Structures are given as C-alpha cells and as structure tokens.
Amino acid sequence: MEHPKTYSCTEISTPGGDLIIEGPVAPERLAEYEFHAGLTAFRVPEKQKQAVIGIAGLPEGRIIIARHGSVIAGYVTYLYPDPMERWAEAQMDNLIELGAIEVAAPYRGGNVAKSLLDISFRDDAMNDYIVISTEYYWHWDLENTRLSVWEYKEVMKKIMGSVGMEMFATDDPEITSHPANMLMARIGSRVDLDSIEKFNEVRFKNRFFY
C-alpha cells in the first residue's frame, strides 16, 4: 500500500524547557540533531539515533520527535513488525508497530509522550492502519519514576488510550510471561473487516483459546 506522510508540529512547555513536537521527520533532518544523553532505554544514544534514522528511511517508517533546539529529548517510532515476531506472520501491509516511545527524564511531567502520540495520529493516513504496541515491563523506567510496575502499567494505558489505543488479549508468550505486559492496538477507521480478522488470528496461535 502507499505510505503517505503528513507533517504536523506543535510546541509545549515542560519542566526541562519548551519542546517542539514534530513529524514525521525525514532521515536527513534527524541526522542534523543530537540525541539527549538520557535516551538510554534501548541502547546508547548515538546507536539509537542511527536506528531511528534507519526507520525514518523506510517506506512505512515514521519518526515523531520532541526537540529542544537541536537536541532530541523524546521520540516515538512506527514501522512494520520485526519479521521474527508473530505480528509479521499475517503479512499485512496495513499493520504497523509503535516500536518505541522514550522521553528524557528532565522533560517528563509535561505530557510529552501524549503530545508525541497526538502529533502521530493527526495524520489522517494513520486511519488506514492497525497500529499495535507491545508493552513489556522490563522496558519501563521504574527506577527513576519510582512507580510500581502496576502504577506504570496504568500510566501507559492512559498515555496510549489518549489516541484511542486499547488493550487486546493475546496468547503471545512474551506478553503472557508477566501480567503487567500488554498488547495495545488502535484499529483505524478505514481498516477493512478482513484485516481485522487477520489481526484477530495472529493474536492467538492456540485456537482453543480464541
């Protein structure tokens, strides 16, 4: 399918300073910016920057950023699921994954994550997709936030829910390995019934529980 991308932008105030929330951002623009030293949830900042630039260059790839001047203080990524994951097995060109969302600690408390999602879904093209997010507690910053795993789960549900994402049941082993883990998804308004059925099938491999 085609992958049209419509740019949007807004500005918000946070405890760490004002941020511009914008995207989708092209890879050549991302290369001009610096990743905040606190963006370490997935890998060291420079390596994560290169990964994000790579995603932005994919036909379906979308990167929304929060930046303070030339420093990226937060971002969210969208791309097709990893071929090794079950979500890719349905071979759906209208299923994409919210692969990562991260905000540097000094800028938290200003609804940055919600703003990143808001800009993401201002693009009408997102209504053509099923957007999934696999939430694993081991990616959550429990230490710095001082939240319990259950409190953090509720925070994530509210953030994702702000753009219409909901919890969906699944028998995926990684999701079911801990009760705090969850599959969340948003089914776009133009997604056809066949695609929804394929999504339902890939959520459950053990048909006994379907």
From TrEMBL:
Tell me if Transferase is a UniProt keyword of this record.
yes
Keyword Transferase annotated: yes
The record, for InterPro entries, names: AcuA, Acyl_CoA_acyltransferase
Q: Which UniProt keywords apply?
A: Transferase
Gene Ontology terms describing biological process: acetoin catabolic process
Please give the Gene Ontology molecular function terms for this protein. Answer: acetoin dehydrogenase (NAD+) activity; transferase activity
- Name it: N-acetyltransferase
